[in-house]
Amino acid sequence: MMDSLSSLVLVVLTLQAAVSSCSSLDLSEQPSNRRLLQDRNPDLLHRDHLPSVGSSTFPRSDQPRNDANGTPHSSSSSSSQSHEVHAKKESSKKGSKKWLYTVVIPVAAGVLLAGIAWMFSPCRKRSDATIGPWKTGLSGQLQKAFVSGVPQLQRSELERACEDFSNIVASHPYYTVYKGTLSSGVEIAVVSTTIKSSKDWSKHGEDCFRKKIDSLSRINHKNFINLLGFCEEEDPFTRVMVLEYAPNGTLYENLHDESFDHIDWRSRMRIIMGVAYCIQHMHELSPAKVHPDLHSSAMFLSEDSAAKIADLSVWQEVVSEGKMPRTNGDHQEPISAGLAGNVYSFGILLLEIISGKLPYSENEGSLVNLALGCIIKGRSIASLLDPKLESHKENELDLICQIILDCIQSDPKKRPSMREITTRLREAIAISPDAATPRLSPLWWAELEVLSPVEAT
Questions:
Q1: Tens of pLDDT along 170-204?
Q2: Class of domain 248-441
Q3: How many other CB atoms are there within 10 angstroms of residue 403's CB atom?
Q4: Would you say the pTM of this structure is higher than 0.85?
Q5: What is the domain class of 151-245+442-457 according to CATH?
């Protein structure tokens, strides 16, 4: 916008300079005409009946005059000279004005109108009307492609990828997850609302849907289930988000479902660090992003068992009509309370990972109360260690137990920030952010293929 205004100002200044130059040219003709008169007949300047240059009154051509010897003669010669000078002056004026009116003004006006039309053209892409692109981790080609925001996809494309929406991998009261496969073989997750008619889709639901697209597109972390695109159509009614697919199920399933492979200590530490890095990243965005439902069912594992955090809360928000408590920049709850709530949830998640126990069970009750009971009885939380673990590192376990106690404090103000937690964890657990992310991620190839039909249009 600033570039456009600068160009507009430049055009206006150019036009003004052109008009000024023509005006100055007009004025400069006067002294040149005087010099012309002086060169041709110096005696004329001393005669009383000769008007000053620029006067509108001239003597009559038939009036007799006397020469230097007193002989009367006609003044036609001097009058002819003055008329010639005046004619040249008028011709010069008309020429400069003609150049001004026929060349300068039309060209400048054309450029000015073209600039204004371009500035207000509906086809022009405005940065404040689009969703910002992912800022890091993208090649130059992908950054260029994402400059227009998250791509909107066609239902027909998703139907082909998901085998006519028959490949269901998860079903919930508020949403359904389909597994899709692109032509390159890359797998994607297609998450759709369970609402089947636009009559049941409220303005509140549409606002939630669009805000979540905006929010998810800004997170951009390799330990997060990233947004690839979305689809919204009215016939048939469709509201869908296309996400990266994590093939190894949820963390909850891997910890508590016997049909899943056992997770060893090192893999659990890598999951902890990946989650910590991602939540810290979210909290330090501007504005900060609070995960609305941080628990093991929202954690997915990649092919090499790296943590991938998902946010699927929007589908419940759509049907809640504002009844759900919000935690991210909403007036119902300050952002600081949401950040502290994430820290508390992270403490419970740590406890669930090292113990292999459910966050709540009918037999043992709340896992937090179980941990606090150990402290009251003079035992360490380490006594809750998962017996299935064949080995572990004592220094890492001790540090995690200390962090758990800090995270689950009843006073939110006494809980540490995610940056403090990540710093402390890394002192004992030597897993860098790069080591905590998936080694082989098909995400970028999925982006390229999803974007191909969008770029073609």
A1: 898 999 999 999 877 888 999 999 999 999 999 99
A2: mainly alpha
A3: 22
A4: no
A5: alpha beta
